Amino acid sequence: MRSIQTNTSSTTSFTLTGFPEMESMEHWLAALLLLLYIISIVGNALIVFIIKEEQSLHQPMYYFLSLLSVNDLGVSFSTLPTVLASMCFHVPETAFDACLAQMFFIHFFSWTESGILLAMSFDRYVAICNPLHYSSVLTDARVAQMGMSIIIRSFCMVFPLPFLLKRLPFCKANVLTHSYCLHPDLLRLPCGDTTINSMYGLFIVISAFGVDSVLILLSYVLILHSVLAIASREERLKTLNTCVSHISAVLIFYVPMISVSMVHRFVKHAPEYVHKFTSLAYLFVPPMLNPIIYSIKTKEIHRRLHKMLLGTKF
């Protein structure tokens, strides 16, 4: 690796790192990441296409699902350029402003995903607890308003982060832990006081992820209370089965995200590969698994996929 020059006032670039401790397996890791990208991009693009083309899927639940798939495409495309450059083409340098822009989009799509999952939990709550009012509560206009609110909230929360970082002097070797730019990773490098950055980062994590996760949990407590009031065991299981896909999406998003946050804040001296693999799980697992889960558990999407990919008639 080329030597890194330090700068006592500013920096023009960062050096991204892949898995130098696993250099002998570098080509296999690059191939695996490319495969994950292909699965994520193709899978989410298919979900969006199927929902657009299938009239029977023009319902609030599937509108939110299509928004989730578009967001997952955003996550994949946000990390793709630097991952390809550093791991496949061995170009580890990224410009300072480009790194800040990538950081913005990665965290923007993460915050947006949390909001979408909350909106989907509200959809499940209304569908199960107030089914007679479902169509009047979740109108197309209200779904659009909810979608715009999620996007605006995410933008407003993430927008200050690049500017808070840009005001700081970077006087250490500007080597990042990952092959993409994350706020906690960038926050290790300035030699100035990062208290404001850390406090703001903690604030938006609590006010977004914290509040969203509590409201999602609350919605499922109310759903469970409503389901337990159903007399028939078969009907109870059938009702709960409509929530399995969403519960899976919530778990595969929040568990890796909490792991990344905990490792960065409380296990700072853990081996580098721990930071890298938790971060990979956070950014790669949800976009890859969400379309697989929904295509398996949603009959209409599963049926349309079979028609498209296998030519099977139902």
Structural features, described:
- This protein is an all-alpha fold and 314 residues long.
- The chain has a single domain, classed as Up-down Bundle (Rhopdopsin 7-helix transmembrane proteins).
- 73% of the residues lie in helices and 2% in strands.
- Strands 1-2 form a two-stranded antiparallel sheet.
- α1 runs antiparallel to α2 (60-88) and α3 (96-129) packs antiparallel against α10.
- It comes from Mesocricetus auratus (Golden hamster).
- One of its GO terms (molecular function) is olfactory receptor activity.
- One of its GO terms (cellular component) is plasma membrane.
Write down the CATH class. Mainly Alpha
Number of domains: 1
Largest sheet: 2 strands, antiparallel
Strand content: under 5%
Outline, from the CA principal axes? globular
State the CATH topology. Rhopdopsin 7-helix transmembrane proteins
Low-confidence stretches: 1-9
The tally of strands reads: 2
Separation, N- and C-terminal Cα atoms: 57 Å
Count, helices: 12
CATH architecture: Up-down Bundle
Mean pLDDT: 85
Alpha carbon gyration radius: 21 Å
- Name the CATH homologous superfamily: Rhodopsin 7-helix transmembrane proteins
Question: Which strand order spans the largest sheet, edge to edge or round the barrel?
Answer: 1-2
Task: Return the structural class.
Answer: mainly alpha
The topology string of helices and strands comes to EHHEHHHHHHHHHH
Helix content: over 70%
